[in-house]
Amino acid sequence: MTSIGIAGPRRVLADVLPGGGVRDLALVVGSAVFVGLSAQVAIPLGFTPVPLSGQTFAVLLAGAVIGPARGLLGMGVYLAAGVAGLPWFTQHTSGWGGASFGYIVGFLLAAVLVGDLARRGGDRTPTRTVGIMIVGNLAIYAVGVPWLMVTVGIGFGQALALGVLPFLIGDAIKIAVAAGLLPTAWHLVHRAERD
C-alpha cells in the first residue's frame, strides 16, 4: 500500500506522524471509529427526527487532521460498515435510510472539503479554522436537508426548521473548539520541529 499523505508545506497534521501505508490505514480506520464513537454522544430532540450528536465535530476534525483522501476513505468505511449492519450510527443504529441518513452521506463531502482546505493551510489559524469548519457544516447540510425533505415529505422551510436551526448553537460550539484545537496542534508541531 502506498502512502496517501501529503508531503511538504501543504500537509495535514497526520502527515507529521511517521509511517506510510500502515499509518494511512490506521488513520482511515481510526477516523471511522472516532466518528462511530462520537455518534453515541447523542441527544434525541422530540420535535425533529434528527438527533443532536457529536458526529459532525468528529467528521470535521478528522477531515482536517487526516486530509481529503484519507478523510473520504474513513467516512466511506464509517458509512459502509453502518449500512452493512454495524450499529455505530447515532443511538446504536445501522442500515440504509432514515431521516438523518443524508447527513451521514454528507460526511464524505465534508471530509474531502475540510481536508483539502486544511491541506492548503486552512487550519493554521483560528479564523481560517472557523472558515473551513463552516464550509464542512454547509456541505453536510447540503446533502442532509434535501434527504430529510424527501424522507419525511416536508418543504424546504420546514426542513431548515427541523434539520438545521436546532443545531446551529451546537455547531458554533464545535467550531469554536476546533478553532482552538487545530491551530494549537500546529503551533506545537512547529515548536517540536524547531527543537
Characterization of this structure:
The protein is mainly α. It contains 7 helices and 2 strands, in the order αββαααααα. It has helices spanning 21-39, 55-66, 68-84, 101-122, 126-152, 156-163, 168-194; strands at 42-43, 52-53. Strands 1-2 form a two-stranded antiparallel sheet. The longest helix has 27 residues, at 126-152. It is globular and about 55 Å long.
Features:
two-stranded antiparallel ribbon, 2% strand, mainly alpha, single chain, 7 helices, 195 residues
SSE blueprint and pairings:
Elements: H1 21-39, E1 42-43, E2 52-53, H2 55-66, H3 68-84, H4 101-122, H5 126-152, H6 156-163, H7 168-194
Helix pairs in contact: 1-2, 1-3, 2-3, 2-4, 2-7, 3-4, 4-5, 5-6, 5-7
Please provide a brief summary of the model:
This protein has about 200 residues and is an all-alpha fold.
The ordered H/E elements are HEEHHHHHH
Provide the structure class: mainly alpha
Fraction in beta strands: under 5%
- Alpha-carbon distance between the termini? 32 Å
Looking at how many chains there are and whether they match, the oligomeric state comes to: single chain
- As laid out across the biggest beta sheet, the strand order is 1-2
Gyration radius (Cα, Å) is 17 Å
Shape type: globular
Mean pLDDT: 92
Largest sheet: 2 strands, antiparallel
Low-confidence stretches: 1-9
**Count of alpha and pi helical runs:** 7
Instruction: Work out the number of β strands.
Output: 2
Helix content: 55-70%
